[in-house]
Structure formats: structure tokens, C-alpha cells
Amino acid sequence: MSIPRNALTAALAIIVMTVLLGVVYPLAITGISQVAFPGNANGQKVYVNGKLVGSKIIGQQFATPVVKNGKPVEEEGVPVTTPDPRYFQTRPSATVPPDNAAATTFSNLGPNNKSTEEEIAANIKAYLELNAPYDPGLSTANVPVDAADSSASGIDPEISQANARIQAHRVAAIRHVPLTQVLGLISNYTTGRSLGIFGEPGVDVLELNLALDRLTGGH
Which domain holds residue 82? Predict the structure, then answer.
């Protein structure tokens, strides 16, 4: 029995389109991006002395593991950490574990939802406990929004200038660096609005922390 012309045509079309759109097109786009935009194409990775330390577009935790009785503490298989006070901290993350680029997510709950209120209250409490001892004027009323709530992606790599300036008091005190010098670094690693009009200026936490380590030798 001969194959109907329409069926043969459809089969050939599927094969051709699969090769074109499933193989040729992806390879062409990948090749062009690797030549024209290698940094963006590869996730804007950041290296220090040849070692991968993070990405410009993915937030990361600057924390130390919580140890009890000589063993790392875990909750539901996830290591428990505490913020390293020597470093600037990113905004709260809704992913598990925090800043997990493989599982970007955000809360779809409304602002008046009890779970949302509890999460924001917990974030504010943690922020005050970390920073208020170094900035006596800090109170709940002036905690920046990005220190109280997570971002849409859950892995935002930047914080607001207001957030960074508050944390600067802690970082300067612990690293024994003049506050003015730390504030200068914040300015150096602040990016402007997209196209000059969209969004707000943001401070690149990873680059800022790397600059601090260069300045103080990691101490």
C-alpha cells in the first residue's frame, strides 16, 4: 500500500522543521551569542584568580554554617546558616535553600496574608538584630523594603542604596575600615536605572564584597 502524498509531505515537514528549529537554529544562536555576548551567554560568571566565585545576575548567601556539638545543623536536609557580619547581605530569598538559581520562586500570597506578614516581620527582626548594634538609630520604621521582602525571582543580586548604607555601619566596624571608605565602595558598585529611566539604582553585593576582601585581605 502506497503512502498518501499528504502523509509523506507532513512527515518530511516535521523532519525538516525539527532539524532547522531543533538543531540548526539553537546552534546558530548559541554560536552568535558566544562570539557577540560571551559574558551574558554564560551567566555573567565572576572569577577571582581563576576560581568561580559567583554570578553578577544571581544572588548568593554570605553566611557561615551553624555548628552544634561539632556538627553542622540541618533542617529538612538543608544546612542552617547565619549571616557573616563581615559581608553585605543580599535581600531575603524565597527559594530553598536561599538564592537557589535552580529553583527561582516568589510568594504568590497577598500583602495582607498572615504568612506574608509573618515572613516580613521575621525578615525585619533578623535585619535589626544584625545591623542595629552598629547603627543605634535603626528601627523598624526605616528598614528598607528590600530588606523586609523577597524579590520576584528570589535570587536578586542587588540591594538598594539605602539598604547598603545601613549595612555599611556594621561592615566598617567589624572590618575596622573608615565608614566613609565603605560608603565610597558602595558608590563604585552602584548601577544606574535601566536605560536611565527604568527601575532604581542597585548595589552589586557580590562585587562590593569582593572589593572589601581586596581592601582588607579578607578580614
Answer: 45-216
Q: What is the DSSP string of 94-110?
A: -SSSTT-GGG-------
In the chain, % of residues over pLDDT 90: 40
Are residues 60 and 28 both part of a single domain?
Answer: no
Q: What is the mean pLDDT of residues 124-129?
A: 95
Q: Phi-psi category of 28—alpha, beta or left, where left has phi over 0 and alpha has psi -120 to 50?
A: alpha
Q: 90, 130 in Cβ contact below 8 A? A: no
The total number of structural domains in the chain stands at 2
Check: CB of residue 84 under 8 Å from CB of residue 64.
Answer: yes
- pLDDT 10s digits, 150-202: 887 778 889 999 999 999 999 999 999 999 999 999 999 998 777 667 778 89
Are residues 50 and 25 part of one domain? Answer: no
With cut-offs at 50, 70 and 90, classify the pLDDT of residue 129: very high
Do 130 and 31 share a structural domain?
no
Task: Please check whether residues 117 and 16 belong to one and the same domain.
Answer: no
CA-CA distances (angstroms) from residue 17 to 3, 28, 84?
A: 21, 15, 52
- Rounded to whole angstroms, what are the CA distances from 171 to 155, 178, 186, 193? 22, 10, 12, 26
CB atoms within 10 A of CB 41: 15
Residue with cell 535585619: 127
